[in-house]
Amino acid sequence: MQYRGVVLDVDGSVVRGDEAIPGALDGLSAIESAGLARLFVSNNPTKAPPAYEARLRKAGIEATAEEIVTSGTTTTVYLAEHHPGARTYCIGESGLHDQLRDAGLELVGPTDAPDVVVVAIDREFDFDDLRDAYVALRDGAKFYGTDPDIIIPTADGDIPGSGAIIHAVAGVAGREPDAVLGKPSAVAQRVVLERLGLPAEDVLVVGDRLDTDIAFGLDAGMETALVKTGVTDEAALANSPYEPHHVLDGLGDIGRLLSK
After folding, report:
1. C-beta neighbour count of 211 within 10 angstroms
2. pLDDT tens, residue by residue, 72-84
3. CA within 20 to 30 Å of 112's CA: 28, 65, 181, 213, which one?
């Protein structure tokens, strides 16, 4: 297959912490040599694209903010379209709060009659936050999660992600989110394909997670490649309902797909 574009997951696929995964720079060089359009697409909502640009550059990857889409990006796009200017209570870190404000949303407290509640990873999440989310949701506010990742890889090992906090809030609220807006959602698919300007069948998705990266690509009609440098092991691969088109030891092996 002749690809025209590639979607690259970030954590566990390209970098771990602030360092490039071994072989990743070679893989990125192969993508550049093949002349493919690329996007880095992350389910990490804690940083806006300019901050992600700085993080990637620190790892030796020359990327621009225009090449980066996060679950914060897809969440703010959706909310700006469907709830413009909405009063919004957000459990999340400062980078997500800034993105919501920049999209014209009004950030308010849990008792200030929010129209929308957004829940994401917050490494200072505690009992008070859980109580506040319950208060904000009990009067019928819309409930959105940024991304479903229960566990995320870091340089110091795997840690709980947005999905873990979303499940906690859903449990006390007695309701599921109205939507979860990062990969593999249809919203994320639309944002990414519009940014690339390519049809799905011309795009390869590379990622380490079956239920987000690979599901994202399969649902959208893209070709998919799983890399074994992140959270997915052989047992998970064997038991998953999501079957990638290709399995690579790491991004450094992508050249064999591009040369076909």
Report:
1. 19
2. 999 999 999 999 9
3. 181
